[in-house]
Amino acid sequence: MPFAFLALSISILLLFLTAIIHRLYLHPLSHIPGPRLAALTYYYQAYYDIYPHRGQFLFHTAALHARYGPIIRIGPNEIHINDIAFYPDVYPTGPQRRRDKSAEWFWFAGLDEFTGRSAFATLEHGLHRVRRGAFAGFFSRGKVLELQPRIRAKVEVLRESLLRREGTGEVVDLRDACGALTLEVITEYCFGAPISVLDSDDYAKVYNEMLRSSTQIHPIGRAFPMVTRALLRLAESFMEGNEGFDVNKQKQKEVDRLTKAAYDDARRTDKPDEEKWTTAIHEIVADEALPPEEKTLKRIMNDAYVFVGAGMETTGRTLAVTLYHILANPEIHKRLMEELRGVIPSSSAPMPDVSALEKLPFLTAVLTEGIRMSHGTAGRLARVAPGEDLNYHGINIPRGTTMSQSSYLIHTNPVIFPAPLEFHPERFMGDGAAEAHKSLVAFGRGTRMCVGMNLAWAELYLTIAMLLTSVEMELWETTERDATVAMEFFLGTLPSDSNGIRVKIVGRL
Ligand code: HEM
Question: Tens digits of per-residue pLDDT, 8-65?
Fold first, then answer.
């Protein structure tokens, strides 16, 4: 017995030693610089993202790049690059240069309980193309312009609800108000019917908080994929009664209901096509390239959850952060109002449509700078080149390596964006603007680039124009810190101890 125990211990020790030597000296990534501990174990990332730190690995990556250079090894099979000139290689367009998503990063791929069969979470390049192709047209610029009344109607509801608070002294957290708006917009836009939250007194704060924090599961899922997947499958039975879980469940049920109603309508054969509703679900059901097994209600619900998740928090936070910077900078506010008054002389004047607002240069620059500083998806977008070795200035990146860049690091690079932590819309106007635009990667690049960017832009134009020309608001007990991303859980995250981006409604314009 003691001998068997000794033999087992020695074998385990030898296995460990072999793994250490392999990862440090023999691994195909051993020539890429970076901390030794990161090359040995993914728990190096967990130390910064889960415990004792939270959501800090992105910022640590910046320090690692400063020390080791633009390409670093951040995990046994993972590298990170910080170079805008290399974006087209990591995130190419077109079918020739296949890019899969990384199974190490997308730990939830295939898991129905967590959007795992959506286009977003699809690992394989070819299957992703077919899944995304089924709904991409519904988010095209033409479709967004056609359906903009759906957006505008929701902004009007928000405007009226803010105006009802005029002079009451009530404090509104713009993170919640804008989150409620974007939740209603995305559900109205995709399903032709909203999840109604704008009329709730606190703009559905619990919902908002739940969505803001839901991405915090990602570092845990990456560090402990099997356990997290198993727990998510079992969650129903032991999480009942937990407020966050119940709210999430309630939202999921509402998305299920909206998706099912649209799905049933799309499949009705007794209704002429012109009488069917116009929804993203109808597009998917009608798509001819998508095989039948991809058109089950359960599979389509995966895409529906992503539409709601992806469409709400990113755009809501961008609106709130942009409004903060406008209200905190009287010069910018004044210049913007002068431009807006040229096309909206009074709050009773008809609201120009999105294509007219897009022609306003200062508004466009303010929104672009808002997108840059909100860091929607701040963190790394991990890819794998399955059939191609890449070469970064003589450094080989073997096929199969998980590689990524992070928009946060590009958007805060002082060489590309001087004084990067300051709000300067002018950087997107005049000389240098073309360069700045080329380096704006908030919506990602390549075949997996954000499908909802036209919708996001339309929401930004309509909301900022309509609110600023009719509602007079003042910041209340809010500082720049409250509007500054301090953590990263794939999405940029505002400080957890902040009381919000708060305003009081002081008048109507
Ligand atoms: C400011 C707002 C937004 C930002 C910054 C943003 C950013 C991004 C980024 C960077 C990606 C790529 C993710 C990856 O590579 O893994 C992405 C994907 C996606 N976004 Fe957005 N997004 C925004 C708004 C929206 C909206 C309004 C929708 C509405 C439906 C949306 C739907 C999606 C979807 C479905 C994908 C997955 C696309 C695919 O995998 O082919 N996003 N978004």
Answer: 889 889 999 999 999 999 999 999 999 999 999 999 999 999 999 999 999 999 999 9
Residue with tokens 């134009």: 461
Which residue lies with its CA nearest to atom 32 of ligand 1?
452
For residue 272, is it within any domain? Answer: yes
- Domain holding 177, by residue range, is 77-508
E-only strand ranges, 312-458:
383-384, 390-392, 395-397, 402-404
Query: Does any domain span residue 29?
Result: no
Annotated binding site for heme: which residue ranges? 450
Q: Is residue 128 part of a domain?
A: yes
Annotated binding site: 450
Pocket of ligand 1, beta carbon within 6 A: 119-120, 132, 186, 306-307, 310-311, 314-315, 318, 371, 376-377, 381, 442-444, 448, 450-452, 455-456
In the structure, what pLDDT confidence band is assigned to residue 237 with cuts at 50, 70 and 90?
low
The rounded radius of gyration (Å) of the Cα atoms in the chain is: 24
Question: Which atom in ligand 1 lies closest to the alpha carbon of residue 131?
Answer: 41
- Protein residue with least CA distance to atom 1, ligand 1: 315
Number of domains making up the chain: 1
Q: In 3D, which of 195, 324, 173, 311 has the Cα closest to residue 247? A: 195
Q: Which atom of ligand 1 lies at the shortest distance from residue 441's CA? A: 10
Give me the CATH number covering residue 479.
1.10.630.10
User: Which residue minimizes the CA distance to atom 18 of ligand 1?
Assistant: 450
Residue 486 lies in a domain: yes
pLDDT in tens, 428-464: 998 889 999 999 999 999 999 999 999 999 999 999 9
